Amino acid sequence: MNAATVFGLLATALVGVGLYGFIVNPQPLRKILAFNVIGSGVFLLFGAIARRGAALGLGGDPVPQALLITGIVVAFSATALAVTVLLRLFDETGSTTLSSGVAPSASEPDPAKARE
Amino acid sequence: MIEVFHLVPALLIGALAVYTTVARDTFAATVGFIAYGLMLTVAWVQLHGVDVALTESAIGGGLTGLLLVRASAKLRATEAAARAERPRASTRLAAAILAAAVSAGLAIAVLALPDPAPTLAPEVLANMGPTGVGNPITAVLMAFRATDTLLEAIVLLLALVGVWSLAPDRVWGGRPGPRYNADPDGILAFIARVLPPIGIIVGIYIFWVGADDPGGKFQGATIVAAMWLLVLMAGLTDAPPISRRLLRAGLVAGPVAFIAIGFAGVATAGAFLAYPDGWSKPLILVVEFALMPSLALTLGLIMAGAPERAEAASPREAAP
Amino acid sequence: MTADAVTTPGGLLLPLAVLVPFLGMIAGLVLGGRNAQRVAMVTIVAGVAIALGIAQSMLQSGDTLVYVLGGFAPPLGIALRADGLSVVMMVAVAVVIGGIGVYARGDFGTPDGVREARAPLMYWLLLLAVWGSLNLVFTSGDLFTLYVALELLTFAGVPLVCLDGKGETLRSALRYLLFALAGSIFYLLGAVLVYGEWGTLDVALLAQRVQPGPVTWAAAALMTTGLLAKTALFPLHLWLPPAHAGAPPAASAVLSALVVKGSFFIVVRLWFDAMPALPGFAAAQLLAGLGAAAIIVGNVVALRQERLKLLIAYSTLAQIGYLFIMFPLAFDAGTGAFVRGEALAGGMLQAISHATAKAAMFLAAGLIYATLGHDRIADLAGAARRVPLSVLAFALGGVALTGALPSGAYVAKKLLLGAADASGQWWWALVLQAGGLFTTGYVLLVLSHALRASADAPAPRVRVRRSQEAAALALAACSLLLGFADVVLPGDLVKSPLDPGELATLVVTVAAGAAIALALGRRLPALPAGAALAAIGSPIRRATVAVGLLVERLDFALRHWHVAGLSLVVLTLLFAAAMSGAR
Fold first, then answer.
1. Residues C445, C376: contact at Cβ < 8 Å?
2. B259, B306, C328, C349: which could join C284 in a potential S-S bond, CB 3.0 to 4.6 Å?
3. Residue C503, Cβ neighbours under 10 Å: how many?
4. Please, which residues have CB within 8 angstroms of residue C327's CB and are 6 or more apart in sequence?
5. What is the CA radius of gyration of chain B?
6. How distant is the Cα of A7 from the closest Cα of chain B, in angstroms?
């Protein structure tokens, strides 16, 4: 097994691990973290693909390597925006839960309350 | 032997990813994530992606790690409430099985990738000559797919607009983040005085060699932005109010220069973002010179966050 | 779409269409304050002119417009392409942005005595960013550039959700952003695999190269599902209703009418252009099955809403479902590929009609809210008297959505029904017809309240900005005028409204819609919840209320984060399985 295969397979594992955390971890910050783990898995897979395309003395295919740099910057922007929204939500409400709204059975309006 | 050389970092990275995901404490998880980012750099070097390794460690590990650690420290109080929301064991089991199925499917796909692999490396080399740059990745970023790079600069700018849009109305136009008050004689202040000159030189160096060797504007700009954050967090300076027009002009100068040179290419070289013969390298350098400060400023301000304090001595209230 | 990438006459308009809105955003940011709105107005005029110029160039040449960026043709470089689909979408988006822009002048003017206020400045910058991102989605022929475009669209859309800065909208925005990020990373993963297998990201080159195989199945399944998450197709819709309902009206209109169409458009690009022979019959049935479920759940839950804005948001959920019914109808069993024809034309026309109609409805709802101080459907009595033009705009937009004659949705429905008939897939025809009845139901429900005279003393007619009402009305009128789209389409689709058959259909539709509204609609005093169900006298009413509650509970359960997350993974696996089974 060469580096491209080892890290390509590692990348698939990272996607799975991140995906698990993204689904089950209720803390939004952990979801952002999990998103970054999935993201690094995707990037690593692209890196393995770039390495497979090594030719003519280049250590890897430069097109995916260049796209990776763009991808990492975009993922950083997403993380920064998400963290800022999260902190603002915490400042505003004191909580970070993503679940809002009440169960439909409980959502029948109390007419007095609905007119507040 | 070669396999052990790759397998050890791969296993470490995998273990750190698992730790980051299952750690009970969010702060511990974010610290784990930073270690994970550092280990990934090893993988990138072994994959012969030194440019990517630089970007990953500077942006993916460094800036993202700082963002997450800072946020997790602030959100300590919400840990208990978050744990109470944890889904049932059956849900977690289903998620684990499905995530494993995705990994397995992907692994099959990875092993089924064609051999020999398709590659654009020969085409990059064949077309690199006229661009005058020696680093093939820079040729892709600044010539063949320069549009992506321009769009990426716009992504960062838009992310900053998004971050600013989260400011409370009463402090609109004010200064981002808290005012840091570190001990002026403390270790942080000492580092913040000594490190930045070196860091800025390193950042500019990485930017400068990027034309021909691994490195480039994004990596360089990140290091410069990190130095500014260090000075900021040591309390040696304060973030500027975001209403300053000069500041905003600085943010957009790089992208505007990029677009202007792009449209000049329509007249002089027959296409948007094309460079006339013999002018490729100088024009690419001009674009990079214009982009680097704007990128550093944008990255730094994204890290600094939404305005939190009204600009002092200017009681301009913004009512919606 | 041709593969040889050579810049065509008029091609320069394509990068201009993308960059002019972003330049407007940049100028607005630097000049700040009141100038941002002025810059936006100038940009809107320029952008509409560019869109029309592109349409003109394409009509002249009769072929796809191409622009090779930097002079480097794919696969090394990137090309922008505008085919018929792109041009139609670009013109429609330009018109809708224009209408919303006129409306937003009323809501997002910078107040006097303030040099710069946050929400107005941000609104104008984000509006322009949405526009530039959408034009990039419509013209880009490269899977990675499309990824950047998707992210731009998300980064512009999320802050619009929480522009008012309140806690609940921040929560909606965070939920939207996080789920959308999962969608984009799935899409990117698919694109990475495509590059690994075929060595290019160019859509036109992929159309020539792609062959079935495990890598491509995985890639197509990941990209499709990721895009569905960003489009909020059932059951991946957890983020949409609160986000679209909680935003300011001028932002809701942008999000509901336009932003969700971006990721939908990329699904069309993938299935029809990049890999038409790959997904196959089963995957198309699955996709349209989700669409049908969206139509049923979205419509029923819409009928049960108390608030007008939430009703409109759930209507969007159902309308998104419609957009995916066209896929199996465009499947050609002979070649095993998706072909451009009546079904695709119908689907795209549906997308455009929905864009104009939904923008009109959200804007009208905003004016109604501003006048009455609330948007409780049950308390809308007197609205027609106080803001008649807004209620009219809402009604026209609603009628256009139902597919009544004459409207764009009418022609779209005829095209889709024709395709269903031709391919023998009667079950999708059934879904289309039933969906129209439900839509009629909730439009009637709202109008029945709004047209009632108020019990209170007749309130004076409130003056809302005339330009705002005009904008809402004009957009609603556009969705009706799209009924004349058939002049460029084959066949004789639009009949005279006085045709006996059409009149009979209309009567039946209205009657059935009224029955649905009566059966499933929420009535005041508050409907009894589960426990009190037995207290309802009529067994029929009891049954319909039970159905309504059940669907509402299903929707609520699916909107839990971990359920939606599991659905995302299950759908990916199902799509991969369906595609690998197609041969």
1. no
2. C328
3. 13
4. C271, C284, C287, C288, C338, C343, C347
5. 23
6. 7
Token representation of residue B93: 């089991």
Contact A19 C181 (CB under 8 A): no
* Rounded Cα distance, A23 and B93, in Å: 11
Q: Which among B11-20, C500-509, C512-521 has the top mean pLDDT?
A: B11-20
3-state secondary structure of B242: coil
Domain ranges of chain B: 125-320
- Which ipTM was obtained for this model? 0.94
3-class DSSP state of C278: coil
Residue B31: name the closest of A116, B163, B245, B23 by CA: B23
User: How far is residue B96's CA from residue B22's CA, in Å, rounded to a whole number?
Assistant: 12
Q: From the CA of B317, how many Å to the nearest CA of chain A?
A: 20
What is the Cα–Cα distance from C35 to C31, expressed in whole angstroms? Answer: 6
* C300 contacts C551 by C-beta, under 8 angstroms: yes
Buried b or exposed e, range C187-217, using 16+ CB within 10 angstroms: bbbbbbbbbbbbbbbbbbbbbebbebbbbbb
Q: Which of C177, C193, C242 sits opposite A100 (nearest CB)?
A: C242
Start-end of H helices in C373-499: 383-386, 388-402, 408-422, 426-450, 466-481
A112 pLDDT tier (thresholds 50, 70, 90): very low
Residue C278 to residue A44: CA distance in whole angstroms: 27
CA-closest candidate to residue B63, choices C147, C176, B71, B201: B71
User: Radius of gyration (Cα) for chain A, nearest Å?
Assistant: 21
Residue of chain C nearest B108, judged by CA positions: C214
Q: Which of residues 228-247 of B touch C (CB under 8 A)?
A: 243, 245
The model's pTM: 0.94
pLDDT at C152 over 60: yes
Distance CA(C35)–CA(C37), nearest Å, equals 5
**Residue C107 to residue C249: CA distance in whole angstroms:** 9
User: Tokens standing for B218?
Assistant: 């994004």
Chain C closest-CA separation from residue B135 CA (Å): 16
At residue C81, φ and ψ (nearest 5 deg) are -135, 140
Spatial CB neighbours of C350, under 8 Å, sequence gap ≥ 6: C319, C322, C323, C326, C408, C409, C412, C413, C416
Instruction: Give the pLDDT confidence score for residue C380 in this predicted structure.
Output: 86
Kindly report the CATH number that applies to the domain delimited by A3-94: 1.10.287.3510
In 3D, which of C85, C84, C82 has the Cα closest to residue C8? C82
Average pLDDT for B304-318:
68
Domain boundaries, chain A: 3-94
CA atoms within 13 A on the CB side of B87: 22
d(CA C104, CA C100): 6
Alpha carbon distance B18, B29 (integer Å): 10
